[in-house]
Amino acid sequence: MDAVVGDLELGDVLIDDGVIVEVGPLVSAAGAEVIDCAGKIVLPGFVNSHHHMFQTALRNYWSDALDMDYFLQSRTGEDALFHQYAPDDVYWGELGGALENLAAGTTTVVDTSQCSYTPEHTDAALEGIRRSGIRAVFSYSPVFGDHEVDDRYGHPDDIRRLLGVAGSDLIRLALGYHVDEDLFRLAKDLVLPVFAHVNDASFGRLLEEFEEDGLLGAHLTYIHCLGLDASTWQAIARTGGKVSASCIAEQTLAMGPPALNDAVDHGVTVGLGTDAVSIGPVDFFSQMRAAYALHRGGRAGVASSRGADVGPDGRLLSPRDILEMATIGGARAAQVDDLVGSLTPGKRADVLVLNGRALNAGPVLHAPGAVLNMDTSNVETVLVDGRTVKADGRLVGVDVRHVVDRLTESAEGLLARAGARSVVLTSCRAD
Ligand SMILES: [Zn+2]
After folding, report:
1. pTM
2. For 145-163, what is each residue's pLDDT tens digit?
3. How many angstroms does the Cα of residue 116 sit away from the middle of ligand 1?
């Protein structure tokens, strides 16, 4: 994924003190510890540019929801599910979610937290992320709904405290969560990235107004971007904004035509995201295949007869293009491409090793195609910042059963406190 290094059929990656030092066909380094990757595919770790990890205990609860089901049941009314979260629920959700991402080969995640009911909730989120060892951008965001806000609710001012205590080598801070003038101004003052949900064209028109006020820029990443006007796309492109597409979650909630092709046609950088695990899967193999199918589906008819005219650079996206969206594109959309997203000497060593000799992968005749059609069972080794977090297909030092037990307890408590019904064999939509 590095234009200078290129894609190597055979190669070595030398890492020292968490940094990629050299990448080439044959790197010699006397005394270095060797991870034998014969028959494997070595990639930069995936970058998930949109997630809400606190929701991990609510896995699949809204898998048949439409967007209003999700928004109403999650945050409207005193009995809404999100309002039941205690800091401990946030902690286990974030830890479990981060571990799930690492196990699936995702080494960086943008966590747009919507659960900062109190500073203690925020601290619990950050602690869960820290414990996992994942690289993260924590997008500090408001909570919504018609519930009574806690006395200690600190949004947005708590970001000033967090800037003093929460940043680290692996965690960067940002602001989220919707298109809001005050939030955009605060981000400009504090020189922070913004991850803003742009769920429909009306939010897009607001962005166009913000451009006139000088509030847009390359530090902004726009989430979803469904059905935007061409003029909004032009404003995003002009100001260097990035887009995060959560293809599966958006289509599961039936939010509208995907933004992927519009973004590509306007020359806007796209990264892939998963959105919440309460709606859909967070593994990037599923995300890449969905993006690829949606892209090609959107080109149907045109592609078959006039392929040369498709897209701004005259071609259809390839599996490698989609792989870029999952790695360096995601890093740009996560505003961390200075650190990760490619195996580039000087960048931090977030590295993924995939088994190409499994029944679902071998023989590897087309490497990007092989990756697109793998699944999490192929994720063998994962390094974050040069540290091995997954080896031989297992997370290092993690008691998975314990984590799932705590998430199960959390789910039971959340559903009980909300008075929400079980949907094990029914539906969140049934009434
Ligand atoms: Zn979201």
Report:
1. 0.96
2. 888 889 999 999 999 999 9
3. 15
